[in-house]
Structure to design on (220 residues):
């Protein structure tokens, strides 16, 4: 399953329905948030995995807690919200409040709900990464390449899907800034994560996901 399949397929739809029912937020807002949060989280994890200790810790967490079963049972997303909050605290660290503020502003999800919604989505995203790790038989040393490959493949796939419901949702939610160059908001999101160059995975390892993604995506 590609990242695009996760965002546009049954899993993404079912998670959006769960969050819509729990938080009273429109499904389109949830899908837009998932489409931005997934590559952002993966980008942060890719940067962290450049450190051997962080890579080992991530590898152990994926083996222990994220085997991908959540993708077939999205009811876990709601019950694992507390775990999701801890995941986000570790991934974003001191950037967490800034990330939440910017995502709230650009998706229209209120600041008091953006954290809990992200916490519900985080275990799903980690489950996806864990499943990809298992299928590709990757250990700690290969996580950076795996995560970079997920982003690169998703960007290439999005580029070939100029018209899709998710692009329409993103274009609407994000106010048009993301679609000025290619007309494909999802591709622009993924391209921003990769520093504007899908073929150079290491171009912006040191910048952190926040500046590369949110700065490029929202025209700041």
């Amino acid at each position: 399953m590609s990242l695009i399949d996760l965002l546009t397929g049954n899993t993404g739809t079912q998670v959006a329905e769960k969050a819509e029912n729990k938080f009273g937020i429109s499904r389109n807002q949830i899908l837009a948030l998932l489409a931005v949060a997934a590559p952002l989280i993966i980008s942060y994890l890719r940067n962290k995995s450049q450190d051997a200790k962080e890579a080992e810790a991530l590898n152990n967490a994926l083996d222990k807690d994220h085997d991908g079963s959540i993708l077939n049972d999205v009811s876990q997303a709601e019950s694992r919200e507390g775990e999701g909050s801890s995941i986000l605290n570790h991934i974003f660290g001191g950037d967490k409040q800034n990330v939440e503020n910017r995502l709230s502003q650009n998706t229209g999800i209120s600041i008091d709900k953006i954290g809990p919604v992200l916490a519900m989505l985080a275990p799903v995203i980690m489950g996806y990464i864990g499943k990809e790790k298992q299928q590709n038989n990757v250990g700690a040393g290969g996580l950076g390449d795996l995560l970079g490959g997920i982003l690169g493949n998703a960007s290439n796939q999005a580029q070939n899907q100029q018209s899709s419901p998710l692009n329409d949702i993103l274009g609407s939610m994000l106010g048009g800034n993301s679609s000025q160059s290619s007309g494909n908001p999802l591709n622009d999101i993924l391209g921003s994560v990769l520093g504007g160059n899908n073929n150079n995975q290491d171009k912006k390892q040191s910048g952190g996901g926040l500046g590369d993604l949110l700065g490029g995506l929202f025209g700041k």
